[in-house]
Specification:
With about 180 residues, this protein is of the alpha+beta class. It is about 25% helix and about 25% strand.
Amino acid sequence: RVIVAQVARSSEPEVALFSVCALYAPSGDNRPRNQFFQQTLLLPFFQQPHQDFFVLGDFNYHHHLRGTTLPEWREWLNNHSLDIITRGSTLPLPTFHRNDSHTTIDYIFASPSMAAETGLPQNSYIHHNWTDHALLSCAIHLDSLTSGPGVWRMNSSLLEVIISETRGLKSKNRWR
């Protein structure tokens, strides 16, 4: 499965800030996974990549080990993007945990221009009752975004109401 989206300001929807490709590659046998990546490379996202992009998801292979997937797919990622979760690390942390199996199969790759705009990469454990995958995340710093039309602004008077209601709940719960 592949989902491709462009992220834009609501005030300028025709101007993409960056593109995102989220994918879930077949697990198990290499043949269906390699066919998946071969077909994925034919998508316009990969044929004519936006200057600023992310490719992320469950790749179902260990990208940093040779011979684990379609060479053309690895080559495309290595030539056009950076692994922003592992960057700076010598070994990637496991992102998949099942019984005694621990491996790295989930990734966030970014174009060099977007990698420069990211920070705080995190590989967070989620309890095995919920999932056998880690939650990968990063902050995206878009200095060009400013407050104004098309950007949500919070009404600070709502914050005061929420705080006072929360305090009231805490004191009520104390007496139960």
